[in-house]
Design a protein that fits this description.
The protein is of the alpha+beta class and about 210 residues long. It is about 25% helix and about 35% strand. The chain has 6 helices and 10 strands; from the N terminus they run αααααβββαβββββββ. The N and C termini lie far apart (about 60 Å).
């Protein structure tokens, strides 16, 4: 098979790579977090049949902005979601599709011991977790850490609502129960059934405007 037999998207990708000699298929595959043969198989073997939209966007951004592949490959893309987690009354989750993303250097995340590739970013709203978290803070949730055995601040789903609370397991409870605690003393702790609650992940980072 030669290029003329490829579909438009595959020819387009090859043309973009030709115009950027510092790139190759293996390096761009690594940028996407895939094995080195991923894009070669996509173009010449037809697997996968199509690239996901987010992969296309990342490739186009890297190629059109001419980001050095050595730098692009060392950046972690963190999806940002438009729903907010409530600190007080929970917020209804209307959509679970990312509304955008931010990218940070892997070295920065490693320094914070946040090397997980399953980080997501949301905004929190309310007053129940003050002074730890303020309404409007942007937070990272580590979806690889959902075990509240040692305590900590977690994002969790209670029905259709998303909450941020300090979570503790209640020892020897039957059925298993969790205690949800607010850092703001004006809010009382309460208990929920563990089976009725889905922990999304641990809050591991926040940012706010001074």
């Amino acid at each position: 098979m030669d290029r003329s037999q490829l579909d438009h998207n595959r020819q387009r990708l090859l043309a973009l790579i030709d115009s950027h000699p510092s790139y190759d298929l293996a390096g761009l595959s690594k940028l996407l977090g895939k094995n080195h043969a991923y894009l070669h198989q996509y173009i010449w073997k037809g697997s996968p049949r199509v690239l996901k939209d987010r992969d296309w966007k990342q490739l186009i951004r890297a190629l059109e902005d001419r980001i050095p592949p050595s730098l692009a490959a060392d950046r972690i893309r963190i999806p940002k979601y438009s729903f907010k987690a409530g600190m007080g009354g929970g917020q209804i989750v209307l959509s679970e599709d990312p509304s955008g993303a931010i990218e940070l250097d892997k070295t920065y995340l490693d320094a914070l011991r946040l090397s997980s590739k399953n980080l997501i970013m949301i905004e929190v709203e309310g007053t129940s977790m003050q002074p730890t978290l303020q309404s409007g803070d942007q937070v990272f949730i580590d979806q690889d850490d959902r075990n509240p055995a040692g305590g900590g601040v977690f994002a969790l789903r209670d029905g259709d609502e998303m909450l941020v609370k300090r979570v503790e397991k209640i020892p020897a409870s039957d059925p298993p129960r969790l205690k949800l605690i607010s850092d703001n003393a004006h809010y009382s702790p309460y208990e929920v059934l563990a089976d009725d609650t889905k922990i999304l992940g641990r809050i591991v980072w926040y940012a706010r405007r001074i």
